[in-house]
Automatic annotation (TrEMBL), chain A:
GO terms for cellular component: plasma membrane. This is Putative spermidine/putrescine transport system permease protein. One of its GO terms (biological process) is transmembrane transport. Belongs to the binding-protein-dependent transport system permease family. It is found in: Cell inner membrane; Cell membrane. Keywords: Cell inner membrane, Cell membrane, Membrane, Transmembrane, Transmembrane helix, Transport. It is a multi-pass membrane protein. Residues 99-290 form the ABC transmembrane type-1 domain. The keyword Membrane applies. The chain crosses the membrane at residues 16-41, 103-124, 136-161, 167-196, 222-248, 268-293.
UniProtKB/TrEMBL annotation, chain B:
One of its GO terms (cellular component) is plasma membrane. PROSITE patterns: ABC_TM1. InterPro entries: MetI-like, MetI-like_sf. Pfam families: BPD_transp_1 (PF00528). Belongs to the binding-protein-dependent transport system permease family. CysTW subfamily. One of its GO terms (biological process) is transmembrane transport. The chain crosses the membrane at residues 34-53, 213-236, 242-260, 300-320, 354-375, 395-418. This is Putative spermidine/putrescine transport system permease protein. Keywords: Cell membrane, Membrane, Transmembrane, Transmembrane helix, Transport. Residues 210-418 form the ABC transmembrane type-1 domain. It is a multi-pass membrane protein. Signal peptide: none annotated. It is found in: Cell membrane.
């Protein structure tokens, strides 16, 4: 935004004040996320910068909290770090267990949400779809309804149908997380389908392709970027979800957010900050992926950036 | 469309069917196909989302604590308190409970004792009249030894059995269906004549909490608007190359775990935290009067404003981006000051974005749970936290359901409004 030539001094002054205000707001947005990174390397169990840290003294920094993440819950954390130590960590360390659970739950709920969501988005984006508005409102509602209400409802429903006796581990949490991820899949995939040229499917049908073949050979490659970003949204939703897990998850179904939640409520230690740092790095990676996918999708669909 | 041509011949398809019928059939077929694609997901959502919430809301008007005992092991359901319920049916409200009423009560207490269910029945009464649970457990323990005249025998156990309020509450509870939990959620109760009155002033918590939730949500919506407007404007007017880079600063918080962002604010706002340390080090604050910014309302407001800010920036940005800058330039060339041009030309064009963002942020903040639970302390709690409290701690599930129903009702109205004004299709995620 360039300042016009005819601006008077007052406007000039305001322009620079405005830029400073914007910079401060951006700082407000980003600082809380960045501040945990250096603090997670604090050598002391404090949540603030020690004098040594400010002087950039190497003694002020350590990786002890990352080490604690690895060893917390191990049977023999102090043994020599050979292969049996690593096996111990893999099998017993609480945070590693939580990561495993989070990945399993996230993976299956993402598959479920993405499959059902993409098929439904194909239907929803057709002009013939009956009662489109009402159905769309129902499908998006898991994003709007307060999470505590969803969790409470599922708690009663699952105990009523006795889902924990079905013998399928994680089933309740996976179904719930799929439900919570579906709105994101619907929104991203229908957005991709808005610019979709339906004469392509007609052309495919004209050349003798059946609907399944048309979908996989013509539609799917074009909407794939949208589907993948929807899937990433669904995965992040599950990976970050704590309330439903607290209400319906079994005792052995500890996930990363649940472990964090317990850590924050009981005795918050800088180990939480090291988890937070790792999660921030993951979200930076995911954001980059989604951004690249969005550009690719725009290129594929021939939409020029606004 | 007409069915016939000018010379009266029916228009038909190649295989001889009337054109209109063939079209209708094709359209119906297309409709069915579109619907069948959506059906699996719709069924999934109805089963795993709508049905559970419906079932939970049903609990707000239905409580079988005083009417049916269900054995947890076998699942056998036995009606309880049947004699007293029969007495209530025969005698209208206001009848003084006589010997027959007490005899029915004594018989029911024996049944309770056999089923080991006095706690359950007592708890149900206790929701509306505190202190009555122990009366039931105590009386049921001695139920078998009770001899006629029952009235005297029971009043001997505890004088409070004669209280008209207790009998009124039992009358209400003897039916599984009740609206009393909604009354409780609105800080009201029934007195001994079943008239609706306010509860004692020191026990009026729910209306206050609803008001607080509303106020804080409005405040948060306003703050996100104030913070989002300048940066959305900046993003919308910068060339795309630069604005895409700055957009990352908005999207990164959006993608970062909610717990991580809440933790960061805990770290920043603690009394020994970064913000206070910086203020003390720069000499603005003395070491002894560090600001208390966490475990109170301030913490909730700051953290939630930060967390919900992207939901305001994104709709504003998508409305501001297509605004043609020549409108403002035209206004300036006609002699408007930059303030007038902004106020009369630019701002009115951004109102749809403000509406969309404000509604979305408000809807999301009214139901917020995690952040207030972690940084809210006592006076930064919202209505969701109270629902969780009644679910997990006080175990008054019907009251939790009634509170949830009220909250959900409000949110659905706002959601409907959002759909009307903005359209769900226009929801954008970065």
């Amino acid at each position: 935004m360039a300042l016009p030539k005819y601006a008077d001094p007052l406007e000039r002054a305001w322009h620079y004040i405005y830029l400073v205000i914007c910079a401060l707001i951006f700082l407000f947005l980003i600082a809380p996320i960045l501040v945990v990174m250096p603090l997670s390397f604090n050598a002391e169990p404090y949540f603030t910068f020690t004098e040594k840290m400010l002087k950039l003294d190497p003694d002020g920094y350590s990786t002890r909290w990352y080490d604690l993440l690895l060893t917390f819950g191990m049977q023999e954390p102090d043994a020599v770090r050979d292969s049996s130590w690593w096996a111990d960590a893999w099998n017993n360390a609480h945070w590693i267990q939580a990561t495993k659970n989070s990945v399993i739950i996230g993976f299956f709920s993402t598959i479920l949400a993405t499959t059902l969501g993409t098929i439904a988005a194909l239907g929803l984006s057709r002009s013939e779809m009956p009662a489109r508005r009402a159905i769309m409102a129902i499908l998006i509602s898991p994003m709007i309804v307060p999470i505590i209400i969803t969790a409470t409802g599922l708690f009663f429903f699952y105990s009523w149908i006795g889902i924990q006796n079905w013998g399928i581990p994680y089933l309740g949490v996976v179904l719930a997380h799929a439900t919570l991820g579906i709105p994101f899949v619907i929104i991203t995939v229908t957005a991709t389908l808005v610019g979709f040229d339906h004469s392509l499917t007609r052309a495919a049908a004209n050349m003798g392709a059946n609907p399944t073949r048309t979908f996989f050979k013509v539609q799917m490659p074009l909407i794939l970027p949208g589907v993948i970003s929807g899937a990433l949204f669904a995965f992040v939703t599950s990976f970050d979800e704590v309330v439903v897990v607290l209400f319906v998850g079994g005792l052995d179904e500890q996930t990363i957010p649940r472990q964090m939640w317990n850590g924050i409520r009981e005795q918050i230690s800088p180990a939480i900050l090291s988890v937070a740092t790792i999660l921030v790095i993951i979200s930076i990676a995911l954001l980059t992926t989604v951004e690249l996918l969005r550009r690719r999708s725009e290129k594929l669909r021939g939409v020029t950036p606004r | 469309m007409t069915d016939s041509t000018a010379n009266g011949e029916m228009l038909t398809t190649a295989d001889g069917r009337p054109l209109k019928a063939a079209l209708a059939k094709a359209e119906a077929h297309a409709k069915r196909r579109a619907f069948l694609l959506v059906l699996p997901l719709l069924a999934f959502i109805l089963i795993t989302f709508v049905a559970p919430i419906g079932q939970m809301l049903f609990k707000s008007v239905n409580n079988e604590g005083f009417t049916v005992h269900e054995d947890l092991g076998t699942g056998v359901r036995t009606p309880i308190m049947t004699n007293i319920a029969a007495w209530f049916d025969e005698n209208p409200l206001g009848t003084d409970p006589g010997e027959d009423a007490y005899e029915a009560l004594a018989k029911d207490l024996v049944v309770l004792r056999e089923l080991k269910a006095p706690g359950q029945a007592g708890t149900r009464i206790n929701y509306e009249l505190s202190g009555s649970r122990s009366m039931f457990t105590k009386a049921a323990r001695k139920a078998k030894k009770l001899k006629p005249p029952y009235k005297e025998a029971i009043l001997d156990l505890d004088e409070d059995w004669g209280s008209p309020k207790l009998w009124q509450v039992m009358r209400g509870a003897s039916s599984s269906f009740t609206s009393n939990f909604y009354l409780a959620a609105a800080d009201r109760q029934r007195d001994e004549n079943a008239k609706v009155v306010m509860v004692n002033e020191n026990r009026q918590v729910y209306v206050k909490l609803f008001m607080r939730t509303l106020n804080l949500s409005l405040l948060i919506t306003f703050l996100t608007f104030v913070l989002a407007y300048p940066i959305a404007h900046l993003l919308a007017t910068l060339p795309l190359r630069h604005s895409n880079l700055l957009m990352i600063l908005v999207l990164l918080p959006f993608w970062t775990s909610l717990l991580v962002r809440t933790t960061s604010w805990m770290v920043l706002l603690q009394s020994q935290g970064v913000v206070n340390d910086a203020l003390v080090a720069s000499g603005i604050l003395g070491d002894e009067n560090r600001l208390q910014m966490m475990y109170n309302r301030t913490g909730t407001v700051i953290a939630m404003t930060h967390i919900l800010l992207p939901f305001m920036v994104l709709p504003l940005y998508s409305v501001m981006r297509p605004i043609n800058p020549s409108y403002v330039r035209a206004a300036r060339s006609l002699g408007a000051t930059s303030w007038t041009a902004f106020r009369r030309i630019y701002f009115p064009q951004t109102v749809p974005g403000i509406g969309a963002g404000a509604l979305l942020v408000f809807i999301l903040s009214v139901g917020y749970y995690i952040t207030p639970a972690l940084v809210g302390g006592a006076d930064g709690q919202l209505i969701s936290n109270l629902i969780a409290f009644h679910m997990q701690k006080s175990l008054n599930w019907s009251l939790a359901a009634a509170l949830a129903a009220l909250l959900l009702g409000g949110i659905l109205i706002l959601y409907w409004l959002y759909d009307r004004l903005v359209g769900i299709d226009n929801l954008k995620l970065g």
